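Example record

The entry below shows one chain as it appears in the dataset: sequence first, then structure tokens.
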Amino acid sequence: MLQTVELPVWLLVLIVLFAAITVASHFLFPSVRWFFRKRAERVVARVNKRLARPIEPFKLARRFDTIQRLKYDPQVIEAVQDHARAEGIPQQVAAEQAERYAREIVPSFSATAYFGFGIRVARWLARSVYRIRVGDFDRARFEEVSPDATVVFVMNHRSNMDYVLVTYLVSQASTLSYAVGEWARIWPMSWIIRMMGAYFIRRRSRGLLYRRVLARYVQIATENGVSQALFPEGGLSLDGRIAPPKLGLLSYIASSVDTSRRDVVFVPVALNYDRVLEDRILIEAAASGERRFRAPLPQIGWNLMRHIWTRLRGRFDTFGEGVVSFGRPLALSEFAAGREGDLAEALATELMARIAATVPVVPVPLVATAVLQGARGHAILPAVEELIAAARAAGAPVPDRTAEDVVTEARARLLRRGLVESDGTPVSGQEVVLEFYAASIAHHLPSN
């Protein structure tokens, strides 16, 4: 028992290494996980006291547990069997493929990251880039929404800043789970976005198995009360107008969610800006006819350095207004009652109509419209006054300032960007940019 045993150094190193791993996995790691889990629970308890809609238990479940729940869902299992028969592959191979899809889709929400990091960054970024204003918002109507209902915000998609503004503005009421495209799968952005509760979707996937796994995740999350934010257009507007809806995610919710157990309330949200950060990239994409565009990195770097230099010199005064308006909520149970035909298509049409009616009217699109209609010099002010009156008559959210202030500010911004001359004449070749902004409010005006 007390005899000396000689071992090679490499074997001793392996023994010590395996012993260290065993100690860590059985004693250290569980203690560390317990510490962070208790800390996260305290954060959630504190946050839930101030949220109008507390964080749902489903959202706090371990990511591994949600993946397993999705993997063994009866509808996913049926889809796996169908896929295996159709492709002529073993069922186990199809099941592994479904599990890969589940791992790709399911987020790993962290309340600490969301409220300790995400909301602070969203608030700072939103306020530093825009003057944030809330257009239409009927608080009484929103307070009537049942606390047991799942709230789904449906929004027009003007800019990638949409995520930031809406997350910031609803942070006192709820957490949001976004559906994000493949652009957000780059590490470390993907890691951060998952912790913020977003789930990834493949915009161009046509595989039935993938769509079934995605549909079940969306349906299970909705059935468990997870507040979500959807962009029915499926991508950024390339011409400034609201695009026709794509039925994907809306059809998953409308077709299978049992509203007798938990109703779903859709909240239309409309956004508009004096300056869309990606405007020229979107305009070029519209001209080329290719939606899958890539922002040129040299141009982004140059614009970022110029922006930082302007800030350091104290000459930056935001990019103007960023306005968010909330339309009339729509309960799925009421909308579906007694309705025949394609429910998802009818729902999408109604929601897009409510979003369009709620799009805010902001200064730059107003002046761009007046200039494109031929107004010059002193004639711009009365032209903008007429446009505001027409938009107000149509029920659109209009600026809460005088027309003179609107014209003064918007003209100054257009001049600085080199889009118009001092008298309001469009600079040659820049008419397409003015049309991009004017198009965002065109549907509010009688002539359109």
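Notes for this example: The chain has a mean pLDDT of 82. The radius of gyration is 26 Å.
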